[in-house]
Amino acid sequence: MSTPVKAKALNCPNCGGTVQLRGLGQALSAVCIQCLSIIDTSSAELRIIQQFKVKERVAPLIPLGTRGKLHGADYEAIGFQTRQIMVEGTAYEWREYVLFNPYKGFRYLSEYDGHWNDIKPLTGLPERVSHQGKPAATWLGKTYRHFQNADAETTYVMGEFPWKVMVGERAITDDYVAPPDMLSSEKTGSEVNWSHGVYMAGEQVRAAFSLPNPLPPSRGVFANQPSPHAGKPGSAWRTAVLLWAALAMVMFGSSLLMGQKEVFKQMFTFTQGSRGEPSLVTGAFDLDGRETNVELSVRTDLDNRWAYFNFALINEKTGQAYDFGREVSYYRGRDSDGDWTEGSSGDTVLIPSVPAGRYYLRVEPEMDPSRPGQSMRYSLTLRRDVPWNLPFFVAFILIAIPAILITLRSAGFESRRWAESDYAPSSSGDDEDDDE
Amino acid sequence: MIKHPLFMAYGLLTILLSGYTQYRGWGNISTNELRNVPKTIRDNPGSYRSHYGYIPRYAGGK
Question: How many CB contacts within 8 angstroms connect chain A with chain B?
Fold first, then answer.
């Protein structure tokens, strides 16, 4: 609940209306909300600084007189103003609250599209520097990147202010960000004021001031809004590197443990169209150990020809056959682009998950039937329990995917942040973001 | 402390699956598995006809 407090009051020298004073004499101007006169409260004369007109009065989200606790101290909202900047003909308006504690002095809250900042004027002077070729500022060892330069105009005021506020007052503002922190400079005439802001969520503000109703939800990404993905891409890639190291260990370790035992090797000759049965069976060989793969390598002397092999790896005892076919073709030549080759005179395949047992291989070669009499020499080599690295390469890519996604999400957040800055990649994207 | 426990679990599962494929001896072709092939093939290889036989072949060449 907001806490009503007793306040001093004065009568407006213009309309005679009551103007409440909560700044205990430390404010320099106060606004008569009845006649919209700004009164100089720095002297007993109560001179009217300005009378202004507005189309519509603005109700602050934190009613003036509300007390809240910030940084362990009670602050009272005593002033409120709206300010705006014009960008490409569009007005962007934000709200600022003047907070006062008799012992701590003044601090401010700003709110734009549901994003809040807890702001304290700086007594020191940040240094303007260049960071990665762009303007920046340093303060207390921290570098803040320049975000936006703007010409800000005060459009509405109410309550009290520690300066002689005026509607229509303009200031050149420069914002520098290092989320969740922000440095802002405001230049009015020859005077430059620096302030330091820290991002606050609406719920934090609501809790600090015990506001009864929820504050409007935030929209978009604000300049110094801390990224929910901050630091995650780096840690994700470190995780990926750890996993890749583990993957490499498993890959090389398993390769070392696999038998890769040669169980059969023989040379053959085949002549297309010769009389007799073209198929043959090899001698029997033993495949030992657990159920694992068998590598078959075919090497031929093919040159500008093709051959097709029907293979059947047959278990001598059980009669189980693993039937498959392979084409081997090798062509070469020369054309206007130079020398070219296509295919290979050899082929290697891995027959998956073959149980242990005594096997033989049935081989049925075939060559171009339109060229009877052509022959080839070929060798067959069988090896048992051979490493196959493709699953590890697939795993390598699969491991990278989460890290890539995390990086893209983080980059997307930063992209939306900087789309509102002076350093947006293109101005066309601004309109889309504004529609959000 | 593990900053991405789900990522780590997913990665370890991926590694385990890769290791499992290696242990089980997976290969890069699919075969047509036949049971009870007659023992006469040993003496008469022509009595067996491959599942993959007699498919029109690509003649190759650029």
Answer: 197
What is the per-residue pLDDT for A32? 92
* Same domain membership, residue A150 and residue A53: yes
Residue range B6-12: mean pLDDT, rounded: 96
ipTM above 0.95, yes or no: no
Shared domain for A237 and A378, answered yes or no, is no
Instruction: For residue A318, tell me if it sits in a domain.
Output: yes
Contact A306 B41 (CB under 8 A): no
The pLDDT assigned to A100 comes to 95
Task: Indicate yes or no: CB of A243 within 8 angstroms of CB of B12.
Answer: yes
* Domain that residue A302 falls in: 259-386
Q: Is A375 on the interface with B (CB under 8 A)?
A: no
pTM of the predicted model as reported, rounded to 2 decimal places: 0.76
Q: Considering its fold, how many domains does chain A have in total?
A: 3
Q: Hey, are the CB atoms on A306 and B57 less than 8 Å from each other?
A: yes
3-state secondary structure of A308: strand
Are the CB atoms for A74 and A68 separated by under 8 Å? yes
pLDDT of residue A6: 54
What do you get for the CA distance between the two ends of chain A, in Å?
32
Whether pLDDT at A283 is above 70: yes
- Reduced to 3 states, what is the DSSP secondary structure of residue A170? strand
pLDDT over threshold 60, residue A248: yes
Q: Are A31 and A164 in contact (CB under 8 A)?
A: no
Q: Is A2 a domain residue? A: no
Interaxial angle between packed helices A232-257 and B5-24, expressed in degrees from 0 to 180 and rounded to the nearest 10: 20
Within a domain: residue A119?
yes
**CATH number, domain with residue A359:** 2.60.120.380
In a domain, A216, yes or no: no
CA-to-CA distance for A70 and A65, rounded, in angstroms?
15
Q: Say if residue A274 is in the same domain as residue A360.
A: yes
Select from A192, A186, A182, A189 the least CA-distant residue to A174. A186
* CA-based nearest residue in chain A for residue B21: A391
pLDDT at B51: 62
Dihedral over Cα of A268, A273, A276, A278: its sign: positive
Domain check: are A320 and A358 in the same one?
A: yes
pLDDT tens profile A108-133: 999 999 999 999 999 899 999 999 89
**A323 vs B: CB within 8 A:** yes
Q: Does A243 share its domain with A370?
A: no
Do A72 and A198 lie in a common domain? Answer: yes
Q: In this predicted model, what pLDDT tens digit does every residue of A98-111 receive, in sequence order?
A: 999 999 999 999 99
